[in-house]
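Practice problem: predict the structure.
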Amino acid sequence: QGKYTFADGLEYKDKKWRYCDGYDRRFYTEICSGLKPPGISQLTNLDPPKKIPEGCYDCGDGFYNPETRVIVDYKLRFLRNADDDEHEWITRTCRKAWDETIEHKPKP
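Answer:
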């Protein structure tokens, strides 16, 4: 029994949880304060987002350095070492400090 409230004020609901369910892709701050005008994207729940250190990824609770496999919090204090599964997930899905140009390849 009890309840869980995230640091940004979002309260977890065991039933009818609709946040980040695949249909509504807004961040919690967008739900509370509204969407930005067209052409101005909000990249994270924190707006403006934290600047990611060179060569690192933003993994949600801090920054990940894939060379050292260390995750630090947003004040750059050690949190944990990433195992193989977490490393793969972060490098596949998380926001990185650099931009890449990706070419569209149509299906044959």
